[in-house]
Amino acid sequence: MFDIGFWELLFVALIGLLVLGPERLPVALRGFQRGVQKMKSFGTSVQAELNHELRIKELHEHLSKAEKMDIEQLSPELQRSMAELREAAAGVQRPYAKKNSVEPKDDADDSSSAAENDKSKPSS
């Protein structure tokens, strides 16, 4: 990677030993190792995020191509998938909307049921 040979590596280790001393050299090497690991993990996370974004873009392109094509020309599996995706998108757009609307009762029905309850109770 860096094309460092044995003698160059030995020279860097000797300079590090002279500058840092035998007490601080292992600590410095561990710190360097942690820094390299953090850089690698950062690079891996950036790469994973870029792959995810590229995959999303690719899916959007495929979806736009499918929408430009005639829907009837798609296979039945793709048509079902498109319908499921549309339902999921509609559910995400209106997450708090009620699925089954309940009709409100009329006031006349409430008063008649209250009158029936009064009739069924014995009067004292």
TrEMBL record:
One annotated GO biological process: protein transport by the Tat complex
Gene Ontology, cellular component aspect: TAT protein transport complex
Origin superkingdom: Bacteria
Cellular localisation: Cell membrane; Membrane
Keywords associated with the record: Cell membrane, Membrane, Protein transport, Translocation, Transmembrane, Transmembrane helix, Transport
Entry-linked InterPro entries: TatA/B/E (IPR003369), TatB (IPR018448)
Protein's UniProt keywords contain Protein transport: yes
Membrane topology: Single-pass membrane protein
GO MF, any single term: protein transmembrane transporter activity
Region (Disordered) residue spans: 89-124
Family per record: Belongs to the TatB family.
Function as written in the Swiss-Prot or TrEMBL entry: Part of the twin-arginine translocation (Tat) system that transports large folded proteins containing a characteristic twin-arginine motif in their signal peptide across membranes. Together with TatC, TatB is part of a receptor directly interacting with Tat signal peptides. TatB may form an oligomeric binding site that transiently accommodates folded Tat precursor proteins before their translocation.
NCBIfam families from the UniProt entry: tatB (TIGR01410)
Subunit relationships: The Tat system comprises two distinct complexes: a TatABC complex, containing multiple copies of TatA, TatB and TatC subunits, and a separate TatA complex, containing only TatA subunits. Substrates initially bind to the TatABC complex, which probably triggers association of the separate TatA complex to form the active translocon.
The protein, known as: Sec-independent protein translocase protein TatB
Gene transcribed to yield this protein: tatB
